[in-house]
Amino acid sequence: MAKNFLPHISTQDDEAGFRKKAFFVGYMVFRCLQVHCGTKEQDDRDYYGKKRLDMAGSLLSGLFRQLFQTMVDTMGKELKKKLDTGSTVLDVQAAIKTDLISRGLKTALATGNWGADRHGNVLRAGVAQVLNRLTFASSLSHLRRLNTPIDKSGKLATPRQLHNTHWGMICPAETPEGASCGLVKNLSLMAFVSVGVN
Question: Is there a single domain that holds both residue 143 and residue 181?
């Protein structure tokens, strides 16, 4: 409950953390009842004010955190194994697998497969890409590309269409043809990403 259920509210395993989560669940139920009773309109999931971009820094920090946790876990297992065999001298430096983090970062940047879940399955594919250098314009376009995490084979029309909140932020014309039309977008030339502050 502490780590997996509403982790953006709190990950503390204490009464204060669970109280925050309980209040948020109450707020979600309240909003659902408001929509059901007709006092509030249903939220628009394509509204760009509620969208968030995963930038390079946050992606790398998340990957580093995951790899560091893996390194700490393997170190703990190694030391526990030593203790179970009855060893009196614990060599902590030998238990730390020094190349685990650097190898994980290199692999993610080379393949584009970003992170793994508890079962070892890839969480996101195609995050890191080789930069298109055909022309200067194509390089700029590639650097400002946005990928919507929706299945490309789906026949949903609304996420692919232009939304009035795209104005000034998303280019209305530049999108690939075919299955990814409208799902792969581009930031407009003068748009910049603001960073959320608490």
Answer: yes
